[in-house]
Design a protein that fits this description.
- By secondary structure, this protein is α/β, with parallel strands linked by helices.
- It has helices at residues 11-30, 66-78, 90-97, 115-125, 147-158, 178-181, 194-205, 209-218, 223-231, 235-244, 252-288, 302-342, 355-364, 367-385, 390-401, and strands spanning 55-59, 103-106, 135-139, 164-170, 185-188.
- Strands 2-3-4-1-5 form a five-stranded parallel β-sheet, with helices on both faces.
- β2, α4 (115-125) and β3 form a beta-alpha-beta unit.
Length: 405
């Protein structure tokens, strides 16, 4: 089993990363820095040296597997097996499990990556590898850096140490500054085929084939959403209730109540995912400070506890935003199906289990109304991403989704 097993539907990307890993192995052998396995197997002088570079920009739509592909590439760079990315050697296993000392991974759970975090990454990039062939700096949410923060990275990405590789992941190449983009090699992932996503769910998560296929279609090949639908028993009922809610709205009051229910549900789901972790982190911090849980915190140590609490609040907001955004994507899929029916297209519907409701809405409205509702959902997504009050943003959307609107 190689490191590429979970990079589904991305043959061209895998080929590019494999070629780069082969060239990197040859480069390691040439500089005499890899006695253990660097010259074995695929490390031949025939490898194209131009296939490897010091900075990569991995882009692709949400759910396409950007982070998975980036981690697989990092593992292939550190691999000591016969073929780069074997998935069996200790280096590959360590990278994929997140324990390799020479792969520094930044995946923020907050709305923005801070300046201090970026400066820490730059410091890590200046170090020589401890045990591996390369010092790999992997930033999974590079689009969550402000322009001022991104500018701090420019010098390090432009002229990194010879054994350092930067891998930045963003939904689009336009999500980073042109100065950063011009110094990176662009690798773009596509939306994977639904059958490839279903096969991954069966193989990796043990989902039933029929359920996996249904989840892959309903998520529109978004791997993360498909896994959520395939593994969470209550996800389908919550999704059904969400998609049918706008049809039953009869007044602005109904829309306001529906918006409140949706935001409350998002906060509850986010709390369920973070509460236990927050408690464990606070307990660990108190133990490290030599304090008893529930005891009084001395004034000299309150700043550290307060900082942890602020970080946890930011993470909770990010989790709530992610849950609401997932709801917006589901609503988009419903009105996409409505538009498909209205235009008489032979494109396969996403929500086959809701075909009656889709037909009902399609018959009572026209394509113009469907496009307006799709635009309203996208506008709500933008407002949620820009730190607007979630309840106000969702209320405005629900009012526009009413049948009377």
């Amino acid at each position: 089993m190689s490191v590429w097993e979970d990079v589904v539907g991305q043959e061209r990307v895998v080929a590019a990363f494999r070629a780069a890993a082969e060239a990197a192995r040859v480069a390691v052998a040439a500089r005499g820095g890899a006695e253990s396995g660097a010259g074995e197997g695929g490390a031949t002088g025939a490898a194209d040296a131009s296939a490897m570079t010091h900075a990569w920009l991995v882009t692709g739509p949400p759910g396409s597997g950007r982070s998975v592909a980036a981690r697989a590439f990092a593992a292939a760079l550190q691999c000591t097996g016969e073929v780069p990315g074997c998935g069996e050697c200790k280096a590959c296993r360590d990278v994929l499990s997140g324990s390799h000392p020479d792969v520094v991974r930044m995946a923020t759970e907050k709305l923005l990556i801070t300046m201090d975090e970026v400066k820490t990454l730059i410091g890590e990039a200046q170090r020589r590898p401890w045990t591996g062939h390369w010092r790999v700096i992997l930033v999974e949410d590079a689009d969550r850096m402000a322009e001022r923060t991104t500018n701090v990275l420019l010098k390090s990405i432009e002229e990194p140490p010879p054994q350092t590789v930067w891998i930045l992941c963003t939904p689009s190449a336009d999500d980073v500054l042109p100065t950063i983009r011009s110094r990176c090699r662009l690798v773009t992932l596509r939306v994977p085929p639904a059958d490839a996503v279903a096969e991954l769910l069966v193989r990796r998560d043990g989902a039933e084939p029929e359920l996996a296929a249904r989840a892959a279609r309903a998520s529109q090949s978004h791997i993360g959403l498909a896994r959520h639908l395939a593994t969470d028993p209550g996800a389908w009922e919550r999704r059904r209730s969400l998609l049918l809610a706008p049809i039953s709205l009869r007044s602005v009051g109904d829309a306001v109540l529906a918006a409140a229910d949706l935001v409350d549900a998002a906060e509850a789901e986010a709390a369920q995912a973070t509460t236990e972790r927050d408690a464990a982190e606070k307990a660990a911090l108190l133990r490290a400070l030599g304090l008893e849980e529930g005891g009084r915190v001395p004034p000299s140590l309150r700043a550290q506890v307060r900082q942890l609490e602020e970080d946890q609040k930011r993470r909770a907001r990010r989790a709530r935003t992610d849950v609401l955004d997932r709801a917006m994507i589901d609503l988009l899929s419903f009105y996409r199906d409505v538009l498909v029916v209205q235009l008489g297209s032979d494109v396969e519907q996403v929500n086959i289990d809701l075909s009656d409701a889709v037909a009902q809405v399609a018959a009572s409205t026209g394509p113009r109304q469907s496009l307006a509702r799709i635009a309203a959902i996208e506008e709500c997504r933008e407002r949620l991403r820009s730190n607007a009050a979630p309840l106000l943003a969702v209320e405005s959307l629900m009012v526009q989704l009413r049948p009377q609107a």
